[in-house]
Amino acid sequence: MTDTTKTTNTVDSLFEEGLARYKAGEAATDLIPVFKEVCDRAPKASSAWICLAWLYLLDDKPNLAFKAAQKAVKINPQDPQARVNLAVAMLETGQKGLRQHIDFTQQLMLVNPEWREEIQNSIEDGLNRKPDWQSLAKVKNWLFNE
């Protein structure tokens, strides 16, 4: 096993451990350092940036979420969750131009119905963890009720 493979396995296992802890209901505040480390060690892993942005949003850190979501979209522009996170972060930080991300996410969900279900589940999870999350509720409304 090369050092690169060892590092990748470690990053992958750290990511998987972080996801498992999240699914078990652990607080975003506790998980942010885990995903920051994954992002530091694997800076081109869009899924890690997506998770980090989501955790920042849950933890009321919209400016950090915006930066992480921008990186996720730059790495993988075709990921609807990255676009949702960016739209929510833009809403929370008063940025302009979020409509294009909503429209693109709607197009992606039409292309792949599984993504639609994943986004619905993700939004429901977010609203369960943070019931008064008005910007996420707005994005949900734009995505599914237009």
In words, what does this structure look like?
This protein has helices at residues 3-23, 28-41, 46-58, 62-75, 80-93, 99-111, 113-129, 134-144. It has a single domain, classed as Tetratricopeptide repeat domain (Serine Threonine Protein Phosphatase 5, Tetratricopeptide repeat, Alpha Horseshoe), CATH 1.25.40. The longest helix is centred in the first third of the chain and has 21 residues, at 3-23. The protein is 80% helix and 0% strand.
Cα shape? globular
Number of strands: 0
CATH topology: Serine Threonine Protein Phosphatase 5, Tetratricopeptide repeat
Gyration radius (Cα, Å) is: 15 Å
Q: CATH H level: which superfamily?
A: Tetratricopeptide repeat domain
Sheet with the most strands, sense and barrel status: none
Order of helices and strands: HHHHHHHH
CATH architecture group name: Alpha Horseshoe
How many separate domains make up the residues?
Answer: 1
Distance between the termini: 51 Å
What keywords describe this structure?
8 helices; Serine Threonine Protein Phosphatase 5, Tetratricopeptide repeat; mainly alpha; globular; disordered N terminus; 80% helix; 146 residues
Layout of helices and strands, plus pairs?
Elements: H1 3-23, H2 28-41, H3 46-58, H4 62-75, H5 80-93, H6 99-111, H7 113-129, H8 134-144
Short description:
With 146 residues, the chain is mainly alpha-helical.
